[in-house]
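Exercise 7. Given the components listed, write out the predicted structure of the assembled complex. Treat all entries as one system.
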Amino acid sequence: MTCRESVPMNTSKKKISRSFQKWLLLLVVTAFLATTAFLWVFQTRLAKDNTIRLLELNIYDVRDTIKDASDENLLKLTTQIAAELNGTDEISPELLNELCRRYDVTDINCINSDGIIFASTYPDFLNYNMASGVQSAEFMVLLSGEDKYVQKYQPVSYDNSISRKYAGVLLERGGFVQAGYGFERFKEDIDQFVVGVTRNRHVGEGGCMIIADESWNIVSDRNGNEGKNLNVTGLHIDTKAMAKGEVFTADVYGENCYCMYKAQEGYTIVAVIPRSEVAQARNIAVAVTTTMQIIVFAVLSIMIYILVKKLVVNNILKINDSLAAITEGKLDTVVDVRSYEEFAALSNDINSTVDTLKRYISDAEARIDAELALAKAIQHSALPSIFPPFPNRKEFEIRASMDTAKEVGGDFYDFYFIDEEHLAFLIADVSGKGIPAAMFMMTAKTLLKSYAESGMSVSDVLTQANNKLCEGNDAGMFVTVWMGYLNTKTGEVTYANAGHNPPLIRHADGSVERVKSRPGLVLAGMENIRYRSYTIQLSKGDILFLYTDGVTEATNNNNSLYGEGRLRSVLERETSADINSLCLLVKADVDAFVGVAPQLDDITMLSLQYKLPKGEAT
Amino acid sequence: MTIEKIAEGTKLTITLIGRMDTITAPQLEVELKQSISGVEELVLDLAGLEYLSSAGLRVLLAAQKVMNRQGSMVVKNVNETIMEIFEVTGFVDVLTIE
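Answer.
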């Protein structure tokens, strides 16, 4: 079971997308407020400009309507007068006065082809040269091709205190006749018409036109105040202070309005439009644009958010996934986010960092391997490895082997003479593997040997070694030991067991049995354990087979254990094998069983064969 | 390996299920380190234990040593396989097996 430490995501840390969203929102709101403010100012200005244009247009319309109407009326009268004059040979003052009365005009002047007044209802005008005044000179166009001409109501050149509206029509005898209206007559003539002008006229939705005459009496008004003074509407026009054609504000019929006036033919034409209406138009425009803005900004920010998430955040997540794999130890993972130059650069940097890391690791591994190889050499050289070790001894033969699972292991075996007659031999298994086990093994091996060589009984050796090993055993390691003393003369083996699996003995007749004992606790497990000694008698040809659990617990790919049964059957089967090849045969059988499955534990064996018949000691 | 803990006052019962080997033994070591202080009666129920390696023995021994100082430790429901291991290694002499 493995437990990978995962660093919990710190929820107080901001996410890029969240942060970006916040700033984007802030930006959008600011942009929105700025554009809305700009729109408000712009629309207010635009609304006012539109209002001015609207007021002007209406005034021009009304003015032109009045002008056209009065022009037409006067021209009609003048044309009739000209027809009368064309029908007479003599233009007498009496005739002119008669016509003046009949057509109800203010004055009639006849001008000859030189532009001089030769007949007039006003004797003062006689012999006046039309070309001599600005107003009268306008009529000279009749002497250069035009057949009729109408002038607007204005002061006359002859006498500026008199205002008239004149029309002129060519006479058949040469020259032309000019008929004029005074204000009273002019008003009388067109007031009727003017009244109707404003009746159906609207300025915008709620605005209106008001027309007043020279004495500020209302001539035309939608509200029916004709004849009353302009004051009743609320308007006060000071022609000196307020320029024609300029916008001013006034309360008209109780409503605050933008107003503009212009004078035409003696009339003052006023156009008014409620300010609320202008504001409303502006407000609607702003509201519509604002709504559009909200939609555009919302769509835009969502799109930007999605885009950023897609381009940045997702790529970062991809890189993070690769990094997570690298952190888990898959150093061959290649970060490959190449959608944008920045991510490609980041990917390259990470890859080269991982490459450097891999190089360091392999360097470190090589160093550790070298050190382990050295440690292995030291460990192996500490174990007797030359066989036969005692070529001169004919009483017994001994053979041992150790195959470590890692470079260095925790198993060991040992044998040595403690005196002329007695051979000490042992097999041991340290808990755990690797360097710590190897170091503990060296300590245990040395202790056991020094106690054995000091002449202690085998049980005392284990008891003393146990107490010694318990001192400062902070790592809680322990070692199982099966140790025996062989009396080479008698074949008697005295042994003690500290938690080790019992050895097997193969008798000369081929039968295999366990070497029984009641094992004491493993060494270094607990202090003050007393180990007991046991004795067995070896006969000629008996083989004592010591092994560690690495043999019986060797595991194949089906997770089955090699087991003691298989070991026994090898020993039973290979009766002809000498002791030298027995260890190899067992190892070969274990290897065949395990197959390609990895070796999990050290495999150590020691076999001892007694060769003297009982009592044949030399 | 699954580790189940039941604490009743100063009594702690730990049930081990599965395999206790080199890889899983440290789990029990960590659990014991966390919860053993103040425990006067430690009960290890090994009914569900299938395999016990030397690494597991080491943890049991360490627990036994701690409990020798502060109370008692009982190992119960030991099956045949585990019992054999306890016998071979001499653990039967130091553990209280019920």
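Discussion: The mean pLDDT of chain A is 87. The radius of gyration of chain A is 66 Å.
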